[in-house]
Design brief:
Layout (H helix, E strand, L loop, with lengths): L18 E5 L2 E4 H18 L3 E5 L3 H13 L3 E3 L6 H6 L6 E4 L9 E3 L19
Parallel strand pairs: 3-4, 3-5, 5-6
Antiparallel strand pairs: 1-2
Helix pairs in contact: 1-2
């Protein structure tokens, strides 16, 4: 196995059926990861997110959120925990919460989930990727 830039996971050269993660007992293949990042990136672009706080219980969804934010050129904020007091103290440091359900109840929350319909990412601008 060779190492390369993380952004290469989003490019089309690798085998789409390659195992990339396991989440809650489910195997996740590269094709599904790319589709999840594409869907999240499209939704983040639609709401104009420029600085997203990633608050996920599941490492897979945290990675999806991180890649989607980076793809859009948005800053990524990772809190030390998702306690309400911590997030309240950081409220000026982000414009949207990107979550898998670890945080709820805000109109500035983008819930990550498997979606169908968006399967391809637009080209990534390496100059704006954070």
């Amino acid at each position: 196995m060779t190492a390369g830039p993380l952004a290469s996971l989003l490019l089309g050269g690798d085998a789409a059926d390659r195992l990339v993660a396991s989440s809650k007992g489910h195997v996740i293949r590269l094709q599904r990861f790319r589709a999840d990042v594409a869907a999240a990136a499209a939704r983040l672009a639609a709401i104009g997110c420029s600085r997203g706080l990633v608050a996920c219980d599941d490492a897979y969804w945290a990675t999806v959120g991180w890649f989607a934010l980076a793809h859009n050129g948005a800053e990524t904020v990772f809190p030390s925990n998702t306690l309400p007091a911590t997030l309240a103290a950081m409220s000026g440091a982000f414009d949207h919460v990107v979550t898998d359900g670890a945080v709820t109840g805000s109109e500035r929350t983008l819930m990550l989930a498997h979606e169908d319909g968006v399967s391809r990412l637009p080209p990534m601008d390496a100059e704006k990727a954070c």
